[in-house]
Write a structure and sequence with these properties.
Layout: E1 8-13, E2 20-25, H1 28-39, E3 45-49, H2 59-62, E4 69-75, E5 85-87, E6 93-95, H3 100-109, H4 119-126, H5 140-187
Parallel strand pairs: 1-4
Antiparallel strand pairs: 1-2, 3-4, 5-6
């Protein structure tokens, strides 16, 4: 039987982000098993971070995830998409209410807000094609600068997250070694 302290809570979503629920798991394999059962999925699935689509396929990486990390399960036919976007019948991207047009309108009034955006929004902006958006924002220079700034902020956020993940892993490893050393001294 699993010890309660070994179970870590996670948020699970399906590819449409319509089904959301919480589960607890003590390993990546345990998470996949429990999440597949909740979502009614069978066969091979892929686990990704809901925020940016990063694949979680190794236990070593999985143990660095924070409590309540939001994860998405994908079947082999599915692929990750940023929030607020979906594919139309012809396969073209369709922006939802939180799509690129809303972002551009908000940022035109105060470009400083780009530093407050989350990973998904920064990715959306850094991947945008300025030529195709001049009907929304006629200022091409603004669009080019926004694309460049978004890419820099996204890169900085990813580097900071990687550094934090490494620190968490280091902390878990040293804390585990400390606990084992402590048990050894108590046993003597």
């Amino acid at each position: 039987m699993e010890a309660e302290e070994d179970l870590i809570p996670y948020k699970i979503v399906d590819v449409t982000r319509e089904k959301r629920f919480g589960i607890v798991a003590n390993s990546l394999e345990d998470l996949v098993s429990r999440a597949c059962e909740k979502l009614g999925l069978s066969g091979s699935v892929k686990v990704v971070l809901e925020q940016d689509g990063t694949e979680v396929d190794e236990e070593d990486y999985f143990i660095t995830l924070e409590r309540n990390t939001s994860l998405m399960l994908l079947t082999s036919e599915q692929s990750w998409e940023p929030p607020g976007r979906s594919k139309g019948a012809n396969g073209d991207q369709i922006d939802g209410g939180r799509g690129i047009q809303g972002l551009l309108n908000r940022l035109q009034s105060d470009i400083g807000h780009v530093s407050l955006l989350g990973g998904c929004e920064l990715e959306l902006l850094s991947d945008m094609d300025p030529d195709s958006l001049t009907d929304i924002v006629p200022d091409r220079v603004f669009l080019d600068q926004l694309k460049e700034a978004s890419g820099r902020f996204l890169s900085d956020k990813r580097q900071a997250k990687e550094a934090m993940d490494l620190l968490k892993l280091y902390h878990r490893q040293t804390a585990g070694g400390f606990q084992e050393g402590k048990k050894g001294t108590l046993a003597q």
